[in-house]
Amino acid sequence: xxxxxxxxxxxxxxxxxxxxxxxxxxxxxxxxxxxxxxxxxxxxxxxxxxxxxxxxxxxxxxxxxxxxxxxxxxxxxxxxxxxxxxxxxxxxxxxxxxxxxxxxxxxxxxxxxxxxxxxxxxxxxxxxxxxxxxxxxxxxxxxxxxxxxxxxxxxxxxxxxxxxxxxxxxxxxxxxxxxxxxxxxxxxxxxxxxxxxxxxxxxxxxxxxxxxxxxxxxxxxxxxxxxxxxxxxxxxxxxxxxxxxxxxxxxxxxxxxxxxxxxxxxxxxxxxxxxxxxxxxxxxxxxxxxxxxxxxxxxxxxxxxxxxxxxxxxxxxxxxxxxxxxxxxxxxxxxxxxxxxxxxxxxxxxxxxxxxxxxxxxxxxxxxxxxxxxxxxxxxxxxxxxxxxxxxxxxxxxxxxxxxxxxxxxxxxxxxxxxxxxxxxxxxxxxxxxxxxxxxxxxxxxxxxxxxxxxxxxxxxxxxxxxxxxxxxxxxxxxxxxxxxxxxxxxxxx
Length: 494
Fold this sequence. Notes:
two-stranded parallel sheet, 8 strands, alpha/beta
């Protein structure tokens, strides 16, 4: 009975309708009218909630989208005109073209840098007129003969300019001897030296005029316009634009004449015809004993100077002249600044290898520019001519060989070049042989030489030991001493 009472007491308690799992909002005490109104109110509230959610969604979709966030936005504007659209497309195409060009340029630069990194990098060092340019030409001739052959015609003009420079020096020396300043001696003798000199100046004046014009073209800004002095390699492209002379009576003669001003070396500035016309007079001048005696008395030794071709006048002063390999190597041209030459090895074990040879100016004023090129070189070719009886052109009181020794010491002691291979070339051994054969005594210019024999082997050995001692003493770390006795002519043929 108690259990029944307990159960009945529990059932009598009013249940909480909100705890029912499926409560529908009904109330047991509500009337029938209230029960009928409940579903309508529920339907209205749910409809209200759905409408609010739709209004929120529509309000979000009505916001304007950002065209710049579109992945394929092409810059179009719905309000632009047809002309504006076309202009926009043209600008877009131009921007794409420029972008592709920049990408291509960057790619080519990267390839060139990688190609240079894998190549062989050589630095040519030495004082001015030590033969660096001749060594470079020998390298090209030995390892890149096709490249060397392509420049053969360009060197014709340089060789002709070297010959004209020798003639000018001869005329100036004869003038100082035969027409001294302030002299009142009569000079109108029929066969007198002064009259002969005036006739020579008149004959050779067209050559000097042509020389000045060519040097102004290939050596702009050069202070001394009486020497073949160039900067960079652009002069080769300028000289290669020389036009060919049409045959006499050709119909193109008038057209070519109208185009003269477009060529760098036109027919008026070509020394070939004037040299051919004056060949006999030039030969007579050079072979005249009085001229040779005057040059020797004045201390002018043309045969020992670079760019000497006076013994080849009969061969060079011809219309069909084409320089030989020896002529090109002997040709004198002074380089100012830094030149980098690149060629591909065409024969030998290193065929198709890229070689970069940097030729720097050797004068004292240009040596400060050498340091930036010491960074990644693999080998340095140092040229030291054994010119014990000569002085520097820019410092006439400084002995050339003494200057080479001091410069060699600086190169050996440089920490930037501690890992670079140093190769020493005792260049121009042919000049040393000629100098000693003429009876010039070494001890007159080098007192420490003493009474050692005055012959080529002894002199070469003496100075080789000097350079070797500097190399071993001043090098930051041990490295082998490599030296070779070379000449400027054909020293790399084997």
